[in-house]
Design brief:
- The protein is mainly alpha-helical and 123 residues long.
- It has one domain.
- Helix content is 57%, strand content 0%.
């Protein structure tokens, strides 16, 4: 069988898909506005491209691919700052940083209690 250098094998494709799904679920769990129109398509494109690039370089660990893509999104690629996405990504940096400091990015994100939505009175 002739290998096509532009095609991925099933295992690599599955890894890329799983890493993307995990990164997107993480952003959705944060309630990030990057998961809402009109920014969602650009955010998805950045995540997908970064995960694919890193998989092409040999990274196959799903949590590592996810974390790398989220960090890449958080720091805002220079080309995206021209279309306003860089500012939107910057607005998400604090929650991502807080969660990264609190635990692994792979853990289920918990809402941060702030303002009138504090969980202190619940329970």
């Amino acid at each position: 069988m002739v290998e096509n250098p532009l095609a991925f094998d099933f295992s690599k494709t599955r890894t890329i898909c799983d890493a993307f799904d995990a990164a997107w679920a993480f952003l959705q769990g944060l309630g990030s506005d990057l998961t809402q129109a009109p920014r969602s398509l650009a955010a998805q494109s950045i995540l997908a491209k970064r995960i694919t690039e890193m998989a092409d370089q040999g990274l196959r660990d799903i949590p590592a691919l996810r974390d790398d893509a989220l960090a890449f999104l958080q720091h805002g690629p220079p080309s995206d700052s021209r279309n306003g996405l860089g500012e939107a990504i910057g607005a998400q940096a604090a929650p991502l940083t807080e969660l990264n400091q609190a635990g692994s990015v792979g853990e289920t994100p918990q809402p941060v209690a702030t303002g009138a939505h504090s969980t202190a009175s619940m329970g």
